[in-house]
Amino acid sequence: LELRNISVDLPLGGFMTRTRLPILLDVSLTVAKGESVALVGESGSGKTTLARAVMGLQAVTRGSVIFDGQSVADPAGLARLRRDAAMMFQDATASLSPRLTVGYLVTEPFRIHGQPLPDPEHVARDLLAKVGLPPAIAARYPHELSGGQARRVGVARALALGPRLVIADEPTAGLDVSVQAEVLNLMSDLRAEMGLAYLIITHNLALVRHVADRVVVLYLGRVVEEGPTAQVFATPAHPYTASLIAAEPRPDPRQRRMDLAIRGEVPSILRRPSGCEFHTRCPMARDLCRHTAPALAAIGTGRQARCHFVDQQQNQPGVRHAVEH
Ligand code: SF4
Fold first, then answer.
1. Of 56, 91, 191, 246, which residue is 20 to 30 A from 164 by alpha carbon distance?
2. 95 near 39, Cβ under 8 Å?
3. d(C-alpha 181, C-alpha 198), whole Å
4. Residue 244: closest CA among 221, 278, 195, 198
5. Which domains does the chain possess?
6. What InterPro entries does the database record attribute to this sequence (predicted)?
7. Cα–Cα–Cα angle for 235, 240, 244, nearest 5°?
């Protein structure tokens, strides 16, 4: 999957107005075969809009989405993406129709895509077994499932047509910690067994550490940092990334870095800050940041960051210490 300089503008106050708000700005990223890429950022960063744009559920204003060498703006490219890529939704129970049995729901993608389904019961049993659920679950309705079971049914449904890419929107949201761990392990096992690629949209950094090879950090619809997960967590190059990592819950509160803590709320996209858009919350902001926007610049193999003071950030005493604990 390749996103080339994607921008998405949405109309402000309904489709009759001419005013458009930029939600995503010039976002590029790739997910290679079998690779797992996480997209992180707070609410309002544009993560879900990006997932919808990839699946052709949201029109792209500029740029292109390429899957397997074909633009998804072409009907043939979109059909191919929809056959070979699947979406795992955030609210698993709400995404499952309450009037259909689990057996019907997990085999529904065959019907939607007009694929042959000679023995639905057998296919349903196989799909449920892949996600560790017993065959008897096939006769149940979504309201009869626990949160963890509903999430597994959502995964089974996503796997129905043998996708090569799974786009997972907050796959652990709303689950308690032990069920989160089960879902993470399931995702890792399926990746190893089936060679799946993942694009994971989340603000759960534990999930990112566990499943992602690379991480892309979004702030107000722009990529502010990208790189291999282990490197980004060990030496974050952008103060926003460092703040997100510093804000992770820790067993010992004395290990939290208050000087790196993120300040205030995400600004409204109606009033984007001047210069570096993170300057209103950045603990390292200087005068230059208030009026000059930094470019996304390479900082080593496969790494990029959007900050005037990347070198100081990476060498800041204590950053390495803070994120290693
Ligand atoms: Fe902070 Fe300035 Fe870097 Fe923006 S450019 S992240 S305000 S130090």
1. 91
2. no
3. 17
4. 278
5. 2-212 (3.40.50.300), 234-324 (no CATH)
6. AAA+_ATPase, ABC_transp_ATP-bind, ABC_transporter-like_ATP-bd, ABC_transporter-like_CS, Oligopep_ABC_C, P-loop_NTPase
7. 80
β 20-30/165-169 pair status: unpaired
| Complex-level ipTM | 0.99
- Residue 93's SS3 state is coil
Digit-by-digit pLDDT tens for the chain (325 residues) are 999 999 999 887 665 666 788 999 999 999 999 999 999 988 888 888 898 888 888 889 999 999 999 999 898 998 888 889 988 877 666 677 889 999 999 999 899 888 888 899 999 999 999 888 999 999 999 999 988 888 889 889 988 998 999 999 888 887 788 888 888 888 888 888 888 999 999 988 988 998 899 999 999 999 999 999 999 999 999 999 999 998 877 656 555 555 556 677 888 878 899 999 999 999 999 999 999 999 999 998 889 999 999 877 665 544 433 333 3
The residue with tokens 């109309």 is 11
The answer to whether 161 and 113 have CB atoms below 8 angstroms apart is: yes
Residues with CB under 6 A from ligand 1: 238-239, 276, 278-279, 282, 284-285, 289, 294, 307-309
With tokens 């939600």, the residue in question is 23
pTM, two decimals, is 0.86
CB 49 within 8 A of CB 8: yes
**Residue identifier of the C-alpha nearest atom 4 of ligand 1:** 276
If DSSP codes are grouped into helix, strand and coil, which group holds residue 184? helix
Supply the DSSP symbol for 263.
Answer: -
Structure tokens at 313: 């950030």
- For ligand 1, the distance from its centroid to the CA atom of residue 297, given in whole angstroms, is 13
Atom number in ligand 1 closest to CA 310: 3
The bridge status of strand 85-88 relative to strand 214-219 is unpaired
Two tokens, residue 39:
């997209």
